[in-house]
Amino acid sequence: MRELAGKTAFVTGGASGIGLALGSAFAQAGMKVMLADIETEALAAAVESLRHSAPDIRGVVCDVADPVSVERAAKASYEAFGNVHVVCNNAGVAAAGGIDNISLDNWRWVLDVNLMGVLHGIRSFLPHIRAHGEGGHIVNTASMAGMNGGLGFSPYVASKFAVVGMSEGLATQLKPLGIGVTVLCPGYVRTRIGESARNRPERYGTTQTPDPASLAGLLLAHIAERLQSGLAPSEVAARVLAAIRGDELYVFTHPEMRGEVEERFAVIMAGMDKAQM
To answer: In whole angstroms, what is the distance from residue 181 CA to residue 129 CA?
Structure first.
């Protein structure tokens, strides 16, 4: 989709971080934008912050882990703007992982948001995009954690690996239909994902903070530090817009992390080499 002006974009996790940056970038490109988020007050503030430069912007409260909520958000988008062309399944959360005190609630919450939330967005909007025949693009937010297992045994890593695989398969099937797919794999970006627990629904139990001296606790502290000095969300959004216009499958934002991916691929290829012996 080279021409974005006049088209409509839907963005989950749109009240802050990468989602808000995407909404702003789409608005600056002349698009109509629906921001969706579970955080009501932050969503209202985000919409208001963009109104001065983007009159065609709305917000809808949406829990991406709930397929009914996503369907309602999709309907609200159609009613507000008509056809939707770009769908960004961007909402994401993180919770403690590791091999100590494995929490089923943590795993269910992270997978429901990061993995099933992407599926719910595709399921709700893809039939609509196919039916209107005006072309479209789906952007799924994964992570560099979906390209290597450096964060260890983690629901976050598992969810992001799954999003990469889903996106690759989806791209193959949608290419003949003129619908593009991009999977966003950023490294550390200045977002509030480290504070995900603020939006954790009661159905997933209480947040369990790991012992600061444990491996999980030390890893969380390291991640928090890296996030503070991370890439600006606006830079990520600019790369996503370029990828939509260029019909690119992958968006990477941190080339310095290439070595981590190469290490994983080297182990994979070594295993393949042994299979030939």
So the answer is: 13
pLDDT mean over 235-240: 98
H-type alpha helices, 94-185: 104-111, 117-132, 155-174
Tell the residue number behind the tokens 């690996």, with chain if given: 161
Identify the CA nearest to 46 among candidates 93, 76, 13, 95. 13
Tokens representing 169 are 């398969």
Cα dihedral value 27, 29, 30, 36, nearest 10: -30
Residue 215 has pLDDT above 60, yes or no: no
Mean pLDDT, range 217-241, rounded to an integer: 77
25-53 per-position pLDDT tens digit: 999 999 999 999 999 999 999 999 998 87
Helix (H) or strand (E) holding 35: strand 32-37
Tokens of 18: 């990468």
Known catalytic membership, residue 250? no
Core vs surface per residue 227-240: b (16+ CB within 10 A) or e: beebbebeebbbbb
Which residue out of 156, 188, 204, 250 is catalytically annotated? Answer: 156
How far is C-alpha 240 from the chain's CA centre?
11
Helix (H, G, I), strand (E, B), or coil: what is residue 2? coil
- Closest by CA to 179, choosing from 216, 136, 142, 211, is 136
Residue 40 tokens read as: 């009501």
Contact criterion met (CB below 8 Å) for 55 and 49:
no
CB 150 within 8 A of CB 226: no
Cα–Cα dist 208/71, whole Å = 31
Q: Is the pLDDT of residue 224 over 80?
A: no
Q: Which two tokens stand for residue 174?
A: 């949608």
pTM: 0.93
